[in-house]
Design brief:
heterodimer, A: 705 residues, alpha/beta, Ubiquitin-like (UB roll), FAD/NAD(P)-binding domain, seven-stranded mixed β-sheet, 36 strands, B: alpha+beta, D-Amino Acid Oxidase, Chain A, domain 2, eight-stranded mixed β-sheet
């Protein structure tokens, strides 16, 4: 069986990793050391992890983030989350088909560690989450010397930064804009090591917050349960992806966008050949671009609104590769027997209702759900409920870009120090203004600036949308690119001065996170100037002398033009700068190079209906409760979600309502019931399923009894 | 939502484990019933926190009778009404690992058999047939009462509510009682934050909140809320059927009990020692490490699964651990259905039937014995063996 592994990547290095053997249903398979069971299985072409106890429908990975509990497998007979559990050599793993039978597992009497070792530890500050917000707060606290414990459930710091191969937007001096997300993660983590007051616990999941203001931690390094009582809690737990109820939405092959990025960018596993994306926000657009970089076809991206909500420059990156962007569309159904094989989509009217007769079917073997994020806020609300002083930063407080998360972490870090009585200045007002700028949504798309075009060499800023971003202004050695430092949402301007000219150094081309700056150089040839275009693909795909399709900003091919030079700048590694010779009249319009023709419409439409899918439009993934069932109860007059819970068991499953609660509320809204009239269910710990043996303090083999 | 009707035969305060089945039996008996509940739907205070155990195998005759009656209601409900209460007749098993418990359980079993209960003492080997995963080390034997069982508290409350409404009972949710209407030595009505209602009988079924409600009527009742905590695991295939009770004391707790829910999840709970006072419902950090340890001590194979959720529920406690039922001398028109001590769910239907007979003046001898035993006027100085 060919392995679904990514062997080369334009941005990510492919580390040499030890391999190990494990078994799946008795069959020997190979995994990479330290990877999760989920990634190992998908790398081996296995994406059905089990079958649901209620209806026998096939289940696989959905969130890859320990949130949804859909990826259950049996490890040595024990139920575990495949996405959070590393695969070990000689591990015996089986699908979770129905309920696990544990009756024949080892059952010798257990010895326990002494109860004294389970004492509650006092910490001044506990930060849950080592992503951009948590790390930035920890740095701020570390600089002041505040004793801080930072825990994260993953094996490395950075949170979702480690999935982001693109250069970041935002402010270059404040939040590392212009640097790739993965590199920012490394920088922040390295910086943190200088501050001895910050203790970091990796592979440590915060599982509960109790009435006595104690937080329960599951430390998977030592397989033990720890309890800490912080004076202040910072919730920097990020976000979880929203699900979407459509028929067949739990079929294997349908992932949250973050899960897909985890597989592709963190674990270098290629889960698909033909990808369809639902949702045109930044998450969906970026995931599409990451897919292309990983050699995966993107057969379409669908957005319900008339325009994509993400940055125009991200959309342009996809348009450049001919990815169909289907706005005002909805997904009706995913088809497939035990794996998604196509989606049925339709146009929607202005009230987002599908227009009959506009249905079409697109063949794909993978669907990404990128329809927005919800804050992971259970620790925040529970802390407020039990009176523990608490702050939230990043997506846990408000969904925004990672750049905003970093800055909000920094602010909260300082506020926490002040709360604890540290003599540190109040948060400057302009920090708060700046934070709100970083959080701001993209503005309208303006027309292309036809301003200065007369010089000998000059950059063209193809970004015509106000977004918070300034790296181009910070890298120009001649200081010719200006962005209002008070409000970095303003568009960049190129202002040539009498005594300073553009030297065509290409730094602005390399640094632009939107890949939206080209450099036109008429100095050698007035009729056929050089245009330098950024490209984040393998240098093997493009050679000097090739005639490559050059597109405008919207992806329209202007013609095929010869490549004159391919290079990358040391400071901006892995961004190729391709210099092509373009006729003068097209030079300022050239914006991209089309390396791969991603979409072949004929292939998409040739696939045939596989008959009706038996799947439903699932709202509660854990208990397999459909939107239809919930809607029927709402229509019958139910207004207390506790009642929905009791009647259907929705929100009572493994994840505790993390996925379905927001969908249930959406159904109320769709049915015209204001949420003020709806009673919420309580959200109870533990927020993550935790082994009884860990909670009980089972003594490890060989340890003291 | 408020019904224009303001005159009822009976007003029940509290739509919980006791109030809802009581409303059902009274409405079925032809009484006009209003239930006033301050929360948005039935069972939202303490009912839904109950773990669902139902037994008649108590050590007090009054509770045995109420338990038997309740068991009959739960066991026959689905056949009668079609509603699935998740009723399972899995039995109860008190396990003995010490000489002391062998003796006390054997004595009690003999007494319970005398009182007509289906319960027997099982020696170790037989016990292990019923509970093959039970830790055999030190096990001496235990009791088994096959007619006891369990059901879903919330599903039961919904079903009782549905059928009570069908029978004509009126429920007012999101409405709080603020006072009573009194004429001389008689309660004649209830004042709420939304209106005034009159009735010839007013029943206090307010669980953990019964005492402050009763004080509004000028009657102090010795009901103090404390809390028990419980947790539930992920589901696994059927391992065992009965509710298992371990009476040994451990740091922080006395009794420990657990069973496997029809969905396959293990629910476990313990009696905290010292008690946790108050009505707060968020679990404390002590519970999981201690209760998990007790669970694994009793059934080591469960070390392979995970805890899913933990919670805390209110026990309206009385000084002797038994409910306070019936009339209050000197105040007519006021009935107590209070102080269920954590057993409101398993006693509720029996209590509802009994109070219906009381209101209709149909009491038989057994009813009278129960009411006397659980009366407000009793001395609260004897404590039941099996709390």
């Amino acid at each position: 069986m060919p392995l679904n592994r990514i062997e080369s990547h334009p941005i990510l290095p492919i580390p040499e990793k030890e391999t190990l053997e494990f078994t799946w249903q008795g069959q020997k398979l190979t995994a990479k050391k330290d990877e999760t069971i989920a990634s190992a299985l998908i790398a081996n072409g296995i994406d059905i992890f089990g079958h649901h106890p209620k209806d026998g429908s096939p289940l696989g990975l959905f969130c890859a983030n320990g949130q949804c509990s859909q990826c259950l497998v049996l490890l040595e007979g024990r139920p575990v989350k495949a996405c959070m559990t590393p695969v070990r050599a000689a591990a015996s793993i089986c699908p979770a088909d129905g309920l696990p039978d544990i009756s024949r597992l080892p059952a010798d009497p257990i010895s326990f560690i002494a109860e004294a070792t389970q004492e509650v530890k006092d910490v001044p500050v506990l930060i849950i989450g080592g992503g951009p917000a948590g790390l930035s707060a920890a740095l701020e606290l570390g600089q002041l010397g505040v004793q801080t414990l930072l825990v994260d459930d993953k094996s490395r710091l950075g949170g979702k930064l480690v999935l982001q191969t693109h250069r970041f937007f935002g402010s270059s001096h404040a939040v590392h804009a212009g640097t790739r997300g993965i590199d920012i993660a490394g920088k922040l983590a390295d910086e943190l090591t200088q501050y001895p007051s910050v203790e970091v616990g990796l592979n440590t999941t915060a599982v509960a917050l109790y009435e006595d203001q104690v937080v329960g931690l599951w430390d998977a390094n030592e397989d033990r349960y720890l309890t800490v009582r912080p004076q202040v809690l910072l919730v920097a737990t990020g976000a979880r992806e929203r699900s979407l109820p459509f028929k067949g939405n739990t079929l294997p092959g349908i992932y949250g966008a973050g899960a897909f990025q985890t597989l592709v960018n963190r674990d270098l596993v290629r889960p698909a050949k033909d990808l369809f994306i639902v949702g045109g926000g930044n998450v969906g657009l970026i995931a599409g671009y990451h897919a292309l970089q990983a050699g995966i076809n993107v057969v379409g991206l669908m957005e319900a609104m008339p325009q994509c909500g993400g940055y125009k420059v991200h959309e342009d990156k996809l348009a450049r590769f001919n990815v169909p962007i289907l706005t005002s569309h909805t997904i009706l159904e995913a088809k497939g027997k035990d794996h998604v094989s196509s989606v049925v989509i339709a146009k929607v009217d202005e009230r987002f209702k599908p227009i009959p007769g506009t249905e079409s079917e697109v063949a794909c073997d993978c669907v990404l759900i990128a329809v927005g994020l919800n804050p992971v806020d259970e620790f925040l609300f529970k802390a407020q409920e039990v009176g523990l002083p608490v702050y939230a930063a990043g997506d846990a407080a408000e969904i925004a870009e990672a750049s905003a998360a970093m800055f909000s972490g920094k602010i909260k870090g300082r506020e926490i120090a002040r709360h604890l009585g540290w003599d540190t200045p109040e948060t400057p007002k302009d920090w708060l203004t700046f934070e709100s700028i970083l959080k701001s949504r993209p503005g309208d798309v303006l027309g292309l600036d036809e301003g200065l075009r007369s010089g000998k060499a000059f950059p063209i800023m193809h970004c015509r949308q106000e977004i918070p971003c300034d790296p181009c202004a910070s890298v120009c050695p001649k200081d010719l690119i200006r962005i209002d430092p008070q409000d970095i949402r303003h568009l960049p301007e190129f202002c040539e001065l009498d005594d300073k000219n553009c030297i065509a150094c290409e730094r602005c081309v390399a640094v632009c996170p939107g890949l939206a700056i080209t450099l036109v150089d008429f100095r050698r040839n007035q009729a056929e100037p050089f245009v330098s275009i950024p490209l984040e693909f393998s240098p093997d795909l493009i050679q000097v002398g090739d005639r490559v399709p050059v597109t405008d900003v919207d992806g329209q091919v202007l013609g095929r033009f010869p490549v004159d030079r391919v290079r990358s700048l040391r400071e901006f590694s892995r961004t190729l700068i391709v210099r092509v010779k373009v006729p003068a009249e097209l030079a300022t319009h050239a914006a991209g190079i089309q390396i791969i023709s991603a979409w072949e419409p004929s292939a998409a439409e040739s696939d045939h209906f596989l008959g009706e899918t038996p799947q439903e439009n699932i709202v509660c993934r854990c208990e397999h409760i459909s939107a239809d069932e919930i809607r029927a109860l709402v229509r019958a007059g139910v207004r207390d979600i506790n009642q929905i819970k009791a009647e259907t068991k929705a929100t009572m499953g493994a994840c505790g309502g993390k996925t379905c609660l927001s969908l249930i509320k959406k159904i109320f809204r769709e049915e015209g019931v204001p949420l003020e009239a709806v009673t919420d269910p309580p959200v109870r710990p533990v927020f993550v399923e935790t082994p009884l043996s860990i909670l009980a303090g089972k003594a490890q083999e060989g340890s003291e009894k | 939502m408020t019904s224009p009707q303001s005159n009822f035969d009976v007003i029940i305060i509290g739509a919980g484990s006791v109030g809802v089945p009581t409303a059902y039996f009274m409405a079925r008996a032809g009484l006009s019933v209003l239930v006033i509940e301050q929360l948005p739907s039935v069972g939202q205070a303490s009912n839904k926190h109950a773990i669902g155990g139902i037994r008649a195998t108590h050590s007090d005759p009054a509770k045995i009778h109420l338990g038997n009656r309740s068991l009959a209601v739960f066991a026959n409900w689905q056949a009668r009404h079609g509603d699935d209460l998740e009723w399972r007749q899995g039995g109860y098993s008190f396990v003995a690992y010490t000489d002391e418990h062998v003796q006390s359980l054997k004595d009690l079993t003999a007494w319970q058999v005398e009182h007509g209960l289906n319960i027997s003492w099982l020696e170790r080997a037989v016990m292990l047939e019923i509970l093959p995963q039970l830790n055999p080390a030190g096990l001496r034997g235990g009791t088994f009462s096959p007619e006891d069982g369990s059901a879903s508290p919330l599903k039961s409350a919904f079903a009782f509510h549905l059928r009570a409404v069908e029978a004509g009972a009126v429920f007012h949710f999101n409405e709080a009682v603020t006072g009573f209407i009194k004429h001389g030595d008689r309660l004649t009505g209830v004042v709420t934050d939304r209106g005034r209602y009159s009735a010839s009988t007013i029943i206090n079924a307010a669980g953990g909140w019964a005492r402050p409600i009763s004080q509004l009527a000028g009657v102090d009742i010795p009901v103090e809320p404390d809390s028990h905590e419980a947790a539930i695991t992920e589901p696994v295939q059927r391992l065992f059927h009965p509710m298992v009770v371990d009476m040994r004391a451990r740091p922080g707790s006395t009794n420990f009990y657990f069973y496997q829910h029809p969905t396959g999840k293990i629910i476990f709970c313990m009696t905290p020692d010292p008690p946790i006072l108050g009505t707060h419902t968020i679990a404390s950090s002590d519970f999981l490490p201690r209760a998990s340890r007790r669970l694994l001590e009793l059934m080591p194979v469960l070390q392979h699964i995970r805890v899913r959720r933990v919670w805390r529920g209110t026990y309206p406690m009385t000084p002797d651990g038994s409910p306070i039922l019936g009339e209050v001398p000197g105040l007519e028109g006021y009935l107590l259905a209070t102080g269920m001590c954590g057993q409101g769910f398993m006693l509720g239907p029996g209590v509802g039937q009994l109070l219906t007979a009381l209101v209709l003046n149909h009491l038989d001898n057994q009813d009278k014995i129960i009411l006397e035993k659980l009366s407000y006027s009793r001395s609260f100085d004897s404590v039941e063996v099996l709390k």
